[in-house]
Amino acid sequence: MEKTRDSFVDQLKGLACFLVVFGHVIMGIRKAGISTPKSMVFVKEYIWTFHVPLFMFLSGYVYRLTGGWEAKGTRKNFLLHKLFNLGIPYFVFSSIYILINSITSGVNNSSSISDILMLWRTPVAQYWFLYALFILFVIWSIIPGGGTTLNVILTTICMFVSIMPINLGIFASSMWMSLFSD
User: Fold this and answer.
1) Taking a C-beta distance cutoff of 8 angstroms, is the pair 125, 109 a contact?
2) Residue 89 phi, psi (nearest 5)
3) Nearest residue to 48 (alpha-carbon basis) of 156, 170, 181
4) Distance CA 16, CA 127 (A)
5) pTM of this structure
6) Does residue 153 have a pLDDT over 80?
């Protein structure tokens, strides 16, 4: 059986990626002292209110669309698959980031090579997303019952919290995944 992709989901992921890059460009231009219209601050802050929730929502949607952990037969197989697809890129690219930042002067976030040993508990830079997504897949593959009252309540609360016009962090936005978990 051939898998088909949901082109609308792909388009939303592309839009979210573009918005992340655009928001970082605005932030970088402003940090460099280059004059920008005041509206750009609002645009960046607006993007920040939903780009992570959108990524997490799409991750949960695709998780459900592809059959969740059951598609891999067992929770263990599913988590090994996610460890391979998220964990390896996380550790490889985070290690490269740390190595470069530890030998390069004048970087925004200096690092020590020993920071590599702490990657299992302390994500770095943009790679926090892979780390958080893996943790969420662990949580949602362990918690049974997608339509339970508790999951509906958590989803509702976190949906409202994550769309507030302030950035409340990964906890609130990541809970979008519960909407589509089993």
Assistant:
1) yes
2) -60, -40
3) 170
4) 16
5) 0.70
6) no
